[in-house]
Amino acid sequence: METTLSSIRGIGPARLKALNEAGIFTARDLVMLLPKEYRDLSQTTPLSALQAGVPTAVRVHVSGEAREQRAKKLLITKVFVTDGSDVVAVVWYNQPWLKNQLTKGRELLLYGKAEWKKGILHLVSPTIEQDGGLVPVYRSIAGIPAKAMRATIEAALDACDSSWPEDLPESIRRQFGLCERNFALRNAHFPTDRAALAAARRRLAFEDLLLYQTALSLFRNTGREGIQFQFEDSALDEFWNRLPFAPTNAQRRVMQEVADDLRSPKAMARMVQGDVGSGKTAIAFAAIALAHGCGYQAALMAPTEVLARQHFDGAKEILEPLGCRVGLLTGSLTPKQHRIAHEAIREGEWDVVIGTHALITEGVEYRKLGLVVTDEQHRFGVRQRTMLGEKGDATNVLVMSATPIPRTLSLILYGDLDISIVDELPPGRKPVATRVVPESKRDGLYGFLRDEVKKGRQVYVVCPLVEESEAVEALPAEQVYEDLRTEHLSDLRIELVHGRMKPKDKDAVLEKFRAGEADVLVSTTVIEVGVNVPNATIMVIENAERFGLAQLHQLRGRVGRGSHASWCFLMADPNERLKFLCSTNDGFKVAQKDMELRGPGELFGTRQSGSITEGVNLMGSDTELLKITHDLARELMTEDSDDARTVIELAKKRFANKLSEIAIN
Ligand code: ADP
Ligand code: MG
Asked: Which of the ligands is closest to the CA of residue 279?
């Protein structure tokens, strides 16, 4: 029997509606909404020991007058606080009610991260806390304040306690030392201490991973009939011969795997993973050429307009001479261009269509679709991947990813796909020399940049997006741009590009940079994928501590594409993570380290929405747990026991919808 939401203390019509809109319909949904993180208020740090980028609790009092300042659409509230060990400035954005609360002398318990701004350490948008040890933080739901959310979940836990029995077999719980479900749920939300929290999260992650992997193994036993291509190996050689370079051994090997898939009666569902610059595009084009040679259309989907255009240009150069007619379909075409594109696709006048989401979001009909390639797949959810696959019966699907993922994780995230790895870079690439640059050396860095620009090189400066709570996306990039332009590098040509610009304006700026008409390009992470400017040899990453290792590695891949020595400067206080990045250029090593340091849950926490593992709780999992559950799932599949039957039933129940989704893939 399900406990209804409206029977829970504190949930009236307005909250009910807000919860429903967020996809929460039962008390169980609510209880399964685990905190995305916890604020540890059990220990405070002296201000003198504050470090950039580390979430910290501080106990302070207000030592000056609070002041407000306007900058564009932003209201900045600033105040100085002290705890005797040091004085630190605190800023908040667009929170007009704060000023009056920040009376001089008031005691505050603040929780947040410090950041460098113009060479001074600030505490940025900390929350003002009441006392309490480990405080859960939930993803925000419109219409429900954080405090109310906590109370509501507590009430839901009380309501669920008796109605939701333990269902993991006891023998499994005993074998792997897992706590009971009720204990786990309560402590995952309101932990009594760190040890209870760890036990709780381990139990919940274990259950999810075990059921999910059991579901995947059930699915893997069935194969999908596919369009079978017929061609000789010589067709592949012909394609390679047309390229301006000789393929690497890794490209050849992976392409052979792709070709074997295409020739088999089973539909291809393969992911090609390879570091940035490993030459995945050539593999995509080769597969497209094979499809075309067999009389089929192909579609290539890229996550951004810029990248789609870049592929379009490349395809015209490489595929058109093979008699393959190439078309472009993106969101920014005019209505008339859209109509023409749709018709060309339907009538088969285009053999290859390259585009963005528009390829699936509009009602595009293909004449004879035989192959679908999605580039930079981590940006797309499984649903989008599936939708494109559905455009043609039994279509072969090839997905490309520049995010190297440790093998254990690949098995889980992409258990439905075969995986090929391009583990070799084309010859002549130089590793990107990577250095951590603390604030004190900033001036020296600017001198170096100026010298390199004088030698004719170009520079990227990348700034993090500000967090949702900080209200505006482009702020840090705009600020850095202004500082460089008016102060530090005023003698150089500097341009700015960020995610909130119109695609057209964005393209114009990128084009200018590509053409060498700008020396420095300041940007948010929009340049992460795709852009290829061999003359740009330096990358500066502001607030590097804010990025994950894998993302930093990805960004760094934008430089080092030409014949000149190249550099990546991480602006941050040195730490273990960043130092590791300086020590290697191998994306798989970086990914492995990222996972070890942050845990798989952290790594994928932000990517889960719409992805295949949505609803699978990876928080609290670690590499060891991934392996244990993987092996156990396999074992149970071959076993004829009550435990096995119980787990398989649970897996089916839990992932029934997911399975059908995967099955169309
Ligand atoms: P990614 O794997 O990041 O998509 P690309 O396919 O964009 O990499 O390739 C990066 C660059 O390397 C391109 O300029 C491409 O022309 C070049 N390239 C690809 N394969 C080779 C090769 N075998 N030899 C030399 N250059 C290559
Ligand atoms: Mg690519």
From this structure: 1
